[in-house]
Amino acid sequence: MDLHSGMPFWVVLNPLYNYYKPLKTNIETHTVIIGSGITGALVAHSLCSLGIDCVVIDKRTIATGSTAASTSQLQYEIDEPLCDLIEKVGKKDAEDAYKYCLQSITDIENVFKSIGKNPDFERVPTYLLASNQKGKKLLQKEFQARKEAGLPVTFLEKEPLKKDLGVDALAALYNETSAQVDCYKAATYLLDHHLQNNELQLYSHTLISDYNETKNGYELVAENGNIINCKNVVIAAGYEAGTFLPKKVMDLLSTFAIVSHPVDASFIWEKRALIWETKTPYLYVRTTADNRIIVGGEDEAYNNPEKRDKALTKKTNILEKKFQKMFPEIPFVTDMSWAGTFSATRDGLPYIGLYPGKPNMYFALGYGGNGITFSMIAAQVIANLISGKPDDRARLFGFNRTK
């Protein structure tokens, strides 16, 4: 699948992780991870940290799938507001899902401290803006739900919001627990760390075209005919996991993003906060380490890559106008724009763990706008399950939660 088009910022900003090593022989290992993006990298880190022998496989150049197109915001908020999620999955599970996401931001931070490399991880606040009166009512309801859950949140009325952020909006929810990162750098840092420490085998440009269950696990067949025998398989291929899933569990969407020329630091708003809104589809805004501004949104149903790519110019213009309306004093000039494919589930939650009837095949599918924090959770859950430790998050985010 063509996961993105245009010029994703991260693969322009960073030197390409120049790694070319297709699988050219039959091998055997304990666990195979399919996908070398941020999800696969976090899973590999968790397994390597436990001393579990594992192999990462990707059909592309390392970390150049959907990870390259991510805007890399880390928030505890899920696409589904807590007040709505409570109605779908129940109060305790909904609150737990939000709390797990909150904890995962710190866990991600600690992962990179443990390897001594920083992929531009930066703690920043978040503002969720009310787009209209309906949005303000939603924020009032959401504020109460989050307060009852003990989550960090502040309700801001119009005037304090204008003073703090410089934006005209009816209200906002604010917290200081979010972060932003360079997810391409994050994925390649993790994989390279374990590769250099001889804890990981990494094969690029290798497509797994078929698989068979065996008495000891799985036999994975590469397109060139080479075979990998393993006990466990972890599918961290995101939206391309359909080859291994018996049925569809998500809807594909197209999203669009632009990044500005660097601007003078005086134009950057207070504390470099992440900004998004209640409107659907929502606009989201962040900054980068070199004072660029990333604006994303204008999501729509995914039909085909050609239609998505043709819409890029139009969507770029819309995103520019929306940002200029929000911050008219900031000189925003688009430097790069891109379109990407992502997916959403009906309850806004990821799918993590074993699929019923597929023993030893684990899925790490961090669907939705909160994909990286879900990926951290998936890495921890799957590492626990493979090492024989129960993890209640596997129930909450598992395939059995939906009929």
From TrEMBL:
SUPFAM superfamilies hit by this protein: FAD/NAD(P)-binding domain (SSF51905)
The FAD dependent oxidoreductase domain, residue ranges: 31-385
Tree of life domain: Bacteria
InterPro entries to which the protein is assigned, alphabetical: FAD-dep_OxRdtase (IPR006076), FAD/NAD-bd_sf (IPR036188)
Pfam families: DAO
UniProt protein name: FAD-binding oxidoreductase
Species annotation: Paenimyroides aestuarii
